[in-house]
Write a structure and sequence with these properties.
Elements (H helix, E strand, L loop, with lengths): L8 H4 L11 H13 L6 E3 L9 E6 L2 E22 L6 E15 L5 E7 L1 H13 L5
Antiparallel strand pairs: 1-2, 2-3, 3-4, 4-5
């Protein structure tokens, strides 16, 4: 189901809670909502649709990916970026890492570890900031 985008900075500033298998519908709704906004959005966190859970979805090349309870294990190559956000107006500066290794649960709740670099790594970091209540 496509959900409305939450733009309430007070809600978005709250750290999200860990997700579990009972949150599968949130993953599905988040994927549907991102698909509906792909013309101007490449990633979303659950709080962007009003759910305070640690779930993100993003475009990794041509593939939409979901990560549940993601955690960055390694970072390499810091740089400064300027980012926009569907939930907040304007662009803001952010410190990002060129390469990251992330541990997460996939949409089927299987534990995974994967390396990302470049733009997909930047998207993941932006959406993880959402999960931590950091407004970019």
């Amino acid at each position: 189901m496509i959900r409305p985008i939450n733009r309430d900075p007070l809600f978005l500033a709250r750290p999200s809670l860990p997700a579990d298998a009972s949150d599968r519908q949130i993953i599905s709704d988040l994927m549907d909502t991102l698909r509906a906004n792909l013309d101007h959005c490449v990633g979303m966190a659950a709080n962007m649709i009003g759910e305070g859970k640690r779930i993100i979805v993003f475009l990794n090349g041509p593939v939409l990916m979901a990560m549940v309870n993601p955690r960055i294990l390694r970072r390499e190559g810091p740089y400064e970026a300027e980012e926009g956000c569907l939930s907040l107006p304007g662009a803001r500066k952010a410190r990002r890492w060129q390469k990251i290794v992330v541990e997460y649960l996939d949409a089927s709740f299987h534990k995974r570890t994967a390396a990302f670099e470049g733009f997909p790594a930047q998207i993941i970091q932006h959406e993880m900031d959402h999960c931590d209540g950091i407004l970019i």
